[in-house]
């Protein structure tokens, strides 16, 4: 298994718009494309309270490539993302890391 950790740093005050987009659009499209989320988190204590961190579980890099590409090119995603940004840009930057479990990890 591969875990992808993605951290979205929002522009000031735009975290609620990002969370709404995930809740009402993104997760439905992930279901459509077979993308398995493994948890979403906001920052309680840290450098920024304008971040959303989440994890996606992948079986392989090939699965990630196929499903993520299909999701990113889905016309419903393209239109929905544009609509969600009618009031302005939401995300300042995104950091993505692909992680593999260690032999002693509780999650494998």
TrEMBL record:
Signal peptide positions on this chain: none
Positions of the NIPSNAP domain: 3-105
Short name of one Pfam family: NIPSNAP
InterPro entries for this protein: Dimeric_a/b-barrel, NIPSNAP
Origin: domain of life: Bacteria
Protein name: NIPSNAP family protein
Organism: Bradyrhizobium archetypum
